[in-house]
Prior knowledge:
The complex is a heterodimer of chains A (about 260) and B (about 260). With about 260 residues, chain A is mainly alpha-helical.
Amino acid sequence: MxxxxxxMPVVLPLLSFVxxxxxxxxxxxxxxxxxxxxxxxxxxxxxxxxxxxxxxxxHVWATLRIALSGFGFAIVLSLPIAVGLAKSRLLxxxxxPLLVVIQSVPVVAVAPIIIVVLGTGDAARIVITFMIAxxxxxxxxxxxxxxxxxxxxxxxxxxxxxxxxQITQIRLPYAVPYIFSGLKISITLAxxxxxxxxFVAAQVGIGYFIQFSTSMFKLPQAWAGLVLLVALSLILFQxxxxxxxxxxxxxxxxxxx
Amino acid sequence: MIQxxxxxxxxxxxxxxxxxSGPLTALESVDLSIERHQFVAVLGPSGCGKSTLLRxxxxxxxxxxxxxxxxxxxxxxxxxxxxxxxxxxxxxxWATVLDNVTFPAKHKNGRVFRVERERARQVIEAxxxxxxxxxxxxxxxxxxxxRVGIARALFLNPDILLMDEPFSALDALTRDAxxxxxxxxxxxxxxxxxxxxxxxxxxxxxxxxxxVMSARPGHVIADRVVPLDRPRDETSLxxxxxxxLAAELRQLLMPTLIGGERS
Lengths: 257, 263
Ligand SMILES: Nc1ncnc2c1ncn2[C@@H]1O[C@H](COP(=O)(O)OP(=O)(O)OP(=O)(O)O)[C@@H](O)[C@H]1O
Ligand SMILES: [Mg+2]
């Protein structure tokens, strides 16, 4: 019985998590750590009551909206670019270095510039999020599109099928596992992007709330915001995983079906 | 009228590839003709251009010199008078056995008609996979996956089968069984078969003729008829003439293998 319980996948991580919380709580009390340095878990819990539930929801929704919009644009734009990169050597030689340069630009540093150019509205925040979420998606899609077994491409050529069907019926489905590993990285990066954009310019959103709370030295509520952010990130990541499991079960490694 | 044109004919075919380290001559003046419905096995060291030969026959490559004729007509591009079977089954992992077999129709025409689906079911039954139509490739063994690969190649009922080491990824027992099953399929519905293998016993057991190729640049160095009646079974290889042929083929291949090591 004890064996069975311990072998369940969630039990061990949960136990260690609870243990850390308890140690943290005890340490915070025993050493009387001031809450602006490291608030105890119970203090963070109290931090949630600093603002009303509706206000929390507003913050979460604002961040979620920006993250999902940036993520959406990243998907929509990376698909044609990846197809182009995979199909044309010329295009990949022309574009790839450019993409690497864009990727190497620290988005946190460009964010203020983008805000000045695009204003403090959603557009700027979505662009910032997009810039962070876009690159891993293009790379994984391109890799996936090129990972098709050459024999299938030969089969396709010998059938003299229209070129687009080689993409839709062979290359794209073959890329699905790659695309999903890209999507999983990209969705968590999108949350980071949204928060970064809110640090720079926003009146609402979890990023804005954390920034605002720390500037007032209200650390417990800043931590509460952080907890929400982690939860949001995890839920989005799991949603992408779930989508893969439901829509493309064959694309998962055997033991995880 | 008796048709005298060969199913496949290579006329002085040469193939040179441009590579990063300069031109690479894979094939040099290959002359080979294969009669309709003949089963021909090709042996040769690794890298001597056997797969290249199949790609030429399929029209996926155009030769740098000479020409390839299929049923008397010069090949000038991909054509689907052929079915291809590869070393790995290379099935679509997301598609069922039935959908994998009908894939050529779906890919070519964008849809699969009911008669085509019926035809696929027959071919699936012929390769011994009746009842597995709805399974995904990952649920099948390697041998069964290769059967699906063969069914996919037979589905459009081509006159010519190009098989590139189709059984070499299988374990020895499965491999022998699959060879004999292929013979049954071939006898039930005759086809011209160009069959590449590294196994002398396999070549001798299956083929009417065995071709031996030299190390790169590849050309035909021997062309032997297998002195065996049909139908054949696992005991066929015991006949002394066949043992003799196998020994001769081994003799012919050895120097090419040593030459192959050098490159
Ligand atoms: N598209 C290509 N571009 C450049 N070189 C090629 C190309 N295709 C084949 N080659 C080269 O031509 C030679 C013959 O290749 P091929 O695949 O036909 O050999 P093979 O006899 O089938 O070998 P194996 O037994 O290992 O399958 C090899 O050296 C290979 O590297
Ligand atoms: Mg080969």
